[in-house]
Amino acid sequence: MWRGAAVAAALCLGAAWLLGRGFEPRGRLLSAAELRRHRGAEGEPGLYLALLGRVFDVQSGRKHYGPGGAYEGLAGKLVGRFYDENGAPTEALRQAEAAMEEGLKLKAESDRRKEQFPPCNSEWSSAKGSRFWCSRQSGGVNRDWIGVPRKLYTPGSRGTQCVCVRTTGPPWGQLDSTEHSDRGDLDNPHLEEYDGCHPLAEQCVLNV
What we know:
This protein is of the alpha+beta class. It is 26% helix and 19% strand. It is built from four helices and ten strands; from the N terminus they run αβαββαβαββββββ. α1 packs across α4. The longest helix has 26 residues. The N terminus is likely disordered.
């Protein structure tokens, strides 16, 4: 059961990735035999990959999917069976699409949380210990504020993550509010200060 769910999740992520990379799905039904003729070899008519019942033209990713590429074993094959012989979607496809939709929602939530709490820059050495600091680009999130390091506890997770937290203005989700304490997200209940670090310092050093 777990293995089947893991495979379905991987297929959903793969289809979402292909769509996100701009690979175009083809608009007509292909049989497995027709698909095998599209592996990108010399003399073949194209380079296709079928995933979640959709056939993608991956010619622009030839170095990955074509002969000699890391994923050449996927090209020209059916990956999963989500349509019947008449081209009608099966229950497996409906379940996979529901899982993909849920996955996209989770990704959107993760992206939103990253905008609110960008990851810290960090470094570690055996001599100096750990250093966490914030900048206007830390975590790959460009913004007009720097923030201060805090430990973020995520519900359902055992560990913590160092994130940068806004120290002024209204809390996240209340950006239009005029009634606030001008502390940004410092009072968020999922945050904790680092011991031994000034609460408003832009960097924190944890000695060995």
